[in-house]
Specification:
There is one protein chain. By secondary structure, this protein is an alpha/beta fold. Helices cover 15% and strands 27% of the residues. It has a ten-stranded mixed sheet, with no helix packed on it. The radius of gyration is 20 Å and the shape is elongated.
Length: 263
């Protein structure tokens, strides 16, 4: 299952059921789990853990050094990929930037051709990231979120669960759970169709919509809106939206600007 042209570091541990394609380079103490497939010309650089059932496409590079001018190549840091991920052609995922730093990908994600996850990114489960989307360092992404092709994200921001982000958008602020985002730092509403498809009940969706209205659409700044909304008790899934906006990153939260009118 290992092609004769592959170059495998003797420190690597390859499960006997894994398939290693032509001209693959595994450079360092990588761990490749059961049923993985690493296609031609892909590279695992340094300490990389690849969970069972994960497929890595042609010419992808996993574990390369961060694009950080102050990075010391002697730094010991890793990339951890969970189970059953699909990493398509030319994807790049860089390792952590500090000693012991981790770039961590959960389970069941689909990363399309040419997308980039920078150092210290944390990606949850069952996300889809389309072609050429670019995530800078220290970004956190939740679960079951779709990111359109060519979307770009500044470092240190957060993207919640069950979001949908338009392709070619540009973001430097947080995108809360359940939101639809587009263009430049713009939330246009809730990902209503996505919530239905993910099995949210009508009652759960109603509570989320009501909280969204209180937080973003009643003319208050976010701190005032959170204070007002905190006077009520919210069901568990709406409460997760509340928790997100209570503790934004230093970047703050994208504002709501519905419609497609020009900026």
């Amino acid at each position: 299952m290992i092609h004769t042209t592959a170059l495998i570091d003797p420190r690597a541990h390859i499960d006997p059921t894994a398939e290693i394609g032509p001209y693959v380079v595994i450079e360092g103490p990588a761990q490749v789990g059961a049923g993985c497939r690493i296609e031609a010309h892909a590279q695992l650089v340094g300490e990389v853990v690849v969970g069972a059932g994960t497929k890595i496409g042609r010419a992808a590079v996993i574990g390369g050094e961060p694009q950080d001018l102050g990075f010391d190549p002697a730094t010991q840091s890793i990339v951890v990929l969970g189970r059953n991920n699909v990493i398509r052609e030319h994807v790049t995922i860089h390792r952590g930037s500090k000693p012991g730093g981790v770039t961590r990908i959960g389970d069941g994600n689909y990363l399309m051709t040419g997308c980039h996850l920078a150092h210290d990114v944390v990606l949850g489960d069952k996300n889809i990231i389309a072609n050429a989307a670019l995530l800078a360092g220290h970004i956190q992404v939740g679960n079951s979120t779709f990111i359109g092709g060519g979307a770009v994200f500044h470092q240190f921001l957060r993207i919640g669960d069950f979001c949908v982000v338009q392709g070619n958008g540009s973001f430097s602020k947080d995108i809360p759970h359940y939101c639809a985002a587009q263009r430049i730092n713009r939330i246009t509403g809730l990902n209503v169709i996505g919530l239905k498809r993910q099995g949210f009940t009508a009652e759960e969706r109603r509570a989320i919509k009501e909280l969204f209205q209180l937080l973003f659409c009643d003319g208050l700044n976010l701190s005032q809106a959170v204070e007002n909304a905190s006077a009520r008790e919210w069901p568990e899934k709406a409460g997760r939206l509340m928790d997100f906006v209570r503790a934004p990153s230093k970047k703050g939260v994208c504002p709501v600007r519905p419609g497609r009118e020009d900026d």
